[in-house]
Amino acid sequence: SQQGEEDPQALSIQEGENATMNCSYKTSINNLQWYRQNSGRGLVHLILIRSNEREKHSGRLRVTLDTSKKSSSLLITASRAADTASYFCATGEFSGGYNKLIFGAGTRLAVHP
Amino acid sequence: EAQVTQNPRYLITVTGKKLTVTCSQNMNHEYMSWYRQDPGLGLRQIYYSMNVEVTDKGDVPEGYKVSRKEKRNFPLILESPSPNQTSLYFCASSPIREVPNEQFFGPGTRLTVL
């Protein structure tokens, strides 16, 4: 089952620009997490926002959560070529009798020097 | 260094030949999980374990087995691999302070079944 759906599927920007990725989901969640994956490598956790939080910051990352719209956004400010990666949202929910993380299909971000 | 390790990293095998992908973590995490990643489908959970000797099915468990005899190890077993199990596999672990919590991922195992 796929809960989070990222938008856009792909994003191409110039270094120094901001990158915004969106995630929509369908059911109630405990938290929402964002992960980053460099090509073919393991995912790296970026940030976790709980269902009772609206905004969270970590360095150049800003995450918002709107539970009424069942959506979240990840903003990367002043992007760098090293930010080129795929970004996944993952919704934490209680489903099928246990707590689980459900990943979306991801947004591919390309930052050009 | 805190990490999740997987072996092998790459594997090409033939249909029906049993294989095991090992996963080990050195962070004393209770929770461990296996995912497969296929293009356009994100990550799908295969099996998970809440602690030693406690395992359960995820969303796509067919064709896979797991065991959790020790806290640090969580091997994934394919008794009779088939071509539709060609995929990129990730092991992950997390502490159970908040569920679902931040997960730490291994580097991945790229499996090709001919």
- The SSE string of chain B, one letter per element, is EEEEEEEEEEE
**Mean pLDDT rating of chain B:** 93
Low-confidence stretches of chain B: none
Tertiary shape of chain B: globular
Spell the H/E element sequence of chain A: EEEEEEEEEEE
Q: Tell me the distance between the termini of chain B.
A: 36 Å
Mean pLDDT of chain A: 91
- Total number of helices of chain B: 0
Main beta-sheet strand count, sense and barrel state of chain A: 6 strands, mixed
Largest β-sheet summary of chain B? 7 strands, mixed
Query: Which percent band covers the strand fraction of chain A?
Result: over 45%
Query: Uncertain spans of chain A, ≥5 residues at pLDDT below 50?
Result: none
Helix- and strand-based class of chain A? mainly beta
**Overall number of strands of chain A:** 11
Measured between the Cα atoms of the first and last residue of chain A, the distance is 37 Å
Given helix and strand content, the structural type of chain B is mainly beta
What percent of the residues of chain B sit in helical stretches (DSSP H or I)?
Answer: under 10%
Helical segment count of chain A: 0
Shape of chain A: globular
Name the descriptors.
heterodimer, A: mainly beta, six-stranded mixed sheet, five-stranded antiparallel sheet, 60% strand, B: 114 residues, mainly beta, seven-stranded mixed sheet, four-stranded antiparallel sheet, 11 strands
Could you provide a short overview of the structure?
Chain A has strands spanning 5-7, 10-14, 19-24, 31-37, 43-50, 55-58, 61-66, 71-76, 85-95, 98-103, 107-112. In chain A, strand 7 (61-66) and strand 8 (71-76) form a beta hairpin. Helices cover 0% and strands 60% of the residues of chain A.
Overview of this protein structure:
The complex is a heterodimer of chains A (113) and B (114). Chain A is built from no helices and eleven strands. Chain A is mainly beta. In chain A, strand 4 and strand 5 (43-50) form a beta hairpin. Chain A is globular, with a radius of gyration of 14 Å. Chain B is globular, with a radius of gyration of 13 Å. In chain B, strand 5 and strand 6 (54-57) form a beta hairpin. Chain B is built from no helices and eleven strands. Helices cover 0% and strands 50% of the residues of chain B.
